[in-house]
Design a protein that fits this description.
There is one protein chain. This protein is α/β, with parallel strands linked by helices. The chain has two domains: 139 residues, HUPs (Rossmann fold); 94 residues, Pantoate--beta-alanine Ligase, Chain: A,domain 2 (2-Layer Sandwich). Helices cover 39% and strands 17% of the residues. It contains ten helices and seven strands. The strands form three sheets. The protein has a three-stranded antiparallel sheet. It has a two-stranded parallel sheet with strand order 1-2. 30% of the residues are buried.
Length: 252
């Protein structure tokens, strides 16, 4: 959605390593915002984005407007079951339906062989994989590693909206997630969830909206982690009015 940073550019780098032609879309999609103020305030800097993409070697930049992407009301309905109702789906109702609308439109326009999405939006990545399978898109969905600042904060366009004080506090999120991941051998999931929430909330400038440990493939909530299971801890935190998300793998 623009306001590009090194995390976005890492997706392009992976694309350029594997594909003959790279296409980057920049579009702040209104249908995935359930908060009009959030849509209004979302950072935009198209000229800077284009300069960055030229330097990185992008072949095609697609920057549509609202009338191009939504010439009429998009009344399609998407149902992802439980996957779309928990975490982001619970706290941002309608969000994933909006994501599905724009992603399917972009897939239909570009007809890519591969599509690259960052793992920072872990639930979104899982749902897009489900979307591609359900609607029989012959597209490989590639998940790309989270890119972090030197202090551990996951790179996000929203980071530039943080006040200096909130930016200084924000690395507590990943620091706490790392500590939680190290505890997994000795503590149960309920303890870890309590630890993460209380530790981050102890920083007066941060407030946890949710923290869940889920199966990395199905997104089902996990109460007990087994050795043959892949789990991911997913979190959303408010730093003032700015909402930050992150995640970490839990491995026994």
């Amino acid at each position: 959605m623009g306001a590009l940073h090194k995390g976005h550019l890492s997706l392009l780098d992976m694309c350029l390593d594997s594909d003959h032609i790279s296409v980057v879309s920049i579009y702040v999609n209104p249908t995935q915002f359930n908060n009009k103020e959030d849509l209004k305030n979302y950072p935009r800097n198209t000229d800077k984005d284009i300069r960055l993409l030229k330097k990185t070697g992008c072949h095609i930049v697609f920057i549509p407007g609202d009338k191009e992407m939504y010439p009429s009301e998009d009344t399609r309905k998407f149902d992802f079951g439980m996957m779309g109702k928990i975490m982001e789906g619970k706290f941002r109702p309608g969000h994933f339906e909006g994501v599905a609308k724009i992603v399917t439109k972009l897939f239909d326009i570009v007809e890519p062989d591969r599509a690259y999405f960052g793992k920072k939006d872990f639930q979104q990545l899982a749902i897009i994989k489900r979307l591609a399978a359900d609607y029989q898109y012959n597209i490989s969905i590639v998940g790309c590693p989270i890119v972090r600042e030197t202090d551990g904060l996951a790179m996000s366009s929203r980071n530039q909206l943080l006040s200096p004080q909130h930016r200084q506090a924000a690395p507590v999120i990943y620091k706490t997630l790392r500590s939680a991941a190290e505890m997994i051998h000795n503590k149960d999931i309920a303890y870890i969830c309590k630890y993460v929430t209380e530790t981050i909330n102890a920083e007066s400038l941060l407030q946890v909206e949710y923290f869940e440990v889920v199966d990395s493939l199905t997104l089902e909530k996990i109460d007990v982690l087994t050795t043959d299971q892949k789990a991911t801890g997913c979190i959303a935190v408010f730093a003032g009015k700015v909402r930050l998300i992150d995640n970490i793998d839990f491995i026994l």
